[in-house]
Amino acid sequence: MSTMLQTEKLEYSYPALEEGEEQTRALRGVDLTIEKGSFVVVLGHNGSGKSTLAKHFNAILLPMGGKVWVEGMDTVDETRLLDIRRRVGMVFQNPDNQIVSNVVEEDVAFAPENLGVPTEEIRRRVDDALGAVGMSEFARHAPHLLSGGQKQRIAIAGVIAMEPACIVLDEATAMLDPVGRQEVLTTARRLNREKRITIVLITHHMNEAEDADRVIVMDNGKIAMDGTPQEVFARVEEIEAIGLTVPDTVQLLYDLRRNGVDVPLSALTVDECADAVAAALK
Amino acid sequence: MLKDITLGQYFPGNTPAHRLDPRTKLLLVVLYIVGVFSAKFVISYGVMILTLIVCARISKVGARAMLRGLKPVLIIIIFTGLLNMFFTPGDPLLSFWIFHISRQGLRLAVFMVLRIMLLITGTFLLTYTTSPIRLTDGLEQLLNWMKRIHVPVHELAMMMSIALRFIPTLIEETDKIMSAQKARGADFESGNLFQRARAMLPILVPLFISAFRRADELAVAMECRCYHGGEGRTKLSPLRYAGRDYFALAAGVCLTAGVMVLGYFGF
Prior knowledge:
The complex is a heterodimer of chains A (282) and B (267).
Chain A: E1 3-14, E2 24-35, E3 39-43, H1 50-56, E4 65-70, E5 73-74, H2 81-87, E6 88-91, H3 104-108, H4 110-114, H5 119-132, H6 148-160, E7 166-170, H7 178-194, E8 198-203, E9 214-219, E10 222-227, H8 229-233, H9 236-241, H10 248-258, H11 270-281
Helix pairs in contact in A: 5-6, 6-7
Chain B: H1 16-19, H2 22-38, H3 42-58, H4 63-68, H5 74-86, E1 92-96, E2 99-102, H6 103-129, H7 132-142, H8 153-183, H9 193-224, H10 243-264
Antiparallel strand pairs in B: 1-2
Helix pairs in contact in B: 2-6, 2-7, 2-10, 3-6, 3-10, 5-6, 7-8, 8-9
């Protein structure tokens, strides 16, 4: 597997808002390598630096210390800016604020239009992208009449139309209801599996990390934990110490274990958890 | 309550008028305006009215919808009519107290009122049959030559289409803010005009703040999708002139020229 994203001793501080105030150190030396084709979930509470990290992945923010490479391209290199942004797509929190046009297909076409793709090719990409997120029948609709989850899928389609190698979802599920969240997550997983697009999902919903390849927990501008979901969520005390909660399933298993029931902590999904509990009760 | 407002009056349809290229329609409106202003007498006005009726029939816009467009300017129309009627000197027709109506005045009044009505209904026909997006696209293409004298045509068109895109979003937001303020006892419905205007202030401040935040986020999202100005952009559905556009333009030019000639010879 080759490397998609790489950071080395990455540091970033937000300037002080008023004079005399300290500047906020959002990232304090992040070393991270994300492989191509992987599904990575970045967890952390507000202010942990996870969104700041995400914004470095397509050169919206440039490092103040250290380096960021996207497929080997240094993000500081301005001549490669469009190449970097074309390879790494971003989906943000508020679906309303990233939709440009008042016709769905025109919005999906926005990125290829910017890249100067020929008209017939744009048409093909738009149809493919809308198909990939399951929104083909809404091609001629007005985005403001769609649900939150649907709007967010349009935003994802708008990114897919660039044919990126990686999509970063920066809290893209935070403003959605449970149904909308599920829509977005299923879409992201399918893109990862079928199109081998690298997915970096930034969230504070623990449950969304269940079937990721890798979970990274951020705290105070640093990587606190890094590993498979099973490895990370087994460290229940540490997770709670930095102010996060583990998924309900892990919490249940953890409580059972503390009370002397012999269950493994690695059963993350509801089904696995139920099986584990059933096995222990036999 | 705010959702009832419809902006950019567009009636979707699939008539020949809808299918015309927006650039053609814009040019036709310009020709039409020239025509209306060069019409001087009964016959030339008759030709212009007939043109309007034919165009309305082709675009399947009903008489009621056409006349509705006149409502906001009704006062101006009446005012213009009355002023022209009473204050044009000439052969007296009727007079009582200080008011005198002359034959010339009456004629001028009728023509002026007709002219305003023709202008407004004619231009409304354009917005009735052209979606705002196509209209901005057409404007951008038509004014493309102005880029050479450093007019930011692409940027203006992009701003216009984004503004149109955000109208429903901001209306929804205003509704939400109003509800939130009402829930905390704000009163928008009573009091005189001044008091009511002042009650709107607590709505405008949060609305503006959120609009700025939206603008900021949208700008970042656009950059993420490789937006870098109008240079080298392509289009999903580029505007292309078809046979019907040349035909419509030719008809428009002939008609306007005809009306100008009629006006010149005093019909």
